[in-house]
TrEMBL record:
Residues 226-328 form the SCP domain. This is SCP domain-containing protein. Gene3D superfamilies: CAP (3.40.33.10). SUPFAM superfamilies: PR-1-like.
Amino acid sequence: MNNFQKKPIRFVMATALLLAFIASVWIVHQHITVERQRNADGRLSLFDISIGDSEKEVIQRLGLPDRKELSKYGYEWWVYNQDLNRYLQIGLERNRVVTMFSNSTGIQWKDIMAGETTQKDIEKNYQIDEAVTVTFDGAEFLLNNANEKEDRILLVEENLAVEIYFDILAGKTAHAIRLQNIDTLVKSRGYHMTWSYNKRPPSISAPQLSEQELEQVHEGIEKQSFDLINTMRMQNELPLLTWDDELAVLAKNHSVDMSQNRFFNHSSPRSGIAADRLKAAGYPFQRVGENLAYAHSDAIDAYIAWINSQGHRNHILTKEYQKIGIGAIDEFITAKFVAN
């Protein structure tokens, strides 16, 4: 009788130990995957992916992306958004990784960790130059780091550009990290820059895209903006917003209005303010908020600007909002937030 009773106890203890071991292995694996700084051959990386990795290597390590979206700079964004706590965008051009971005909780590059490391910490440990010099296509470029310094810092290491984005309204802590090769950094023109060359001017123009391709770019910006806003809400323990097609059309209409009539304002001479536009469309609402962005290099750049502007941030983090629609055209982005 006693022997019979002891067996299940040993079994339970062994099972508990096994489960604890499995859990600890899983946690360690997750920690390494998120924070690993160099891959097997020593190159700097995020999520074990490095600039220059092949499409095949990305699929082997991360699987197929949840979405693929064209960027206006010619590379294709691979978006991994199944788990917003591990949100990742990877840009591929000619089957090679040229840029990566993540605002994942606890994402880390070297000793810089999102949500913990402050701008002052980075300035103590790294040399932050007011102007950064890089070489591309036979020319020397001087990028002005000083004007952008408030919400980001640009570092160049091992022919790799590293941008650390800050959450200024949360103690100037690191919020997100972008890695990119020098070609992509220069072509995106995210910084004020001058350049000099000897024999011929460098080729830094964005590719000429068809109307259909531009439409794909705009759709990508809309979806990425939606994902990024929801990552911010998740990190602040707020309910995620639901995409609303009708709201997206209304947002798009305002972006088109601003683009065609060359103004940038919540108030339109033709349609009034955000609430007026919803009323005219017969869209039911109790509360509406609207974020606008203009002349940002991509959805990431617009998102960083929004979270560092108190009014725009308030819209993103208002608990009562349930739905969102986003419309992008040319250099304009409109996001409408609604509670009803």
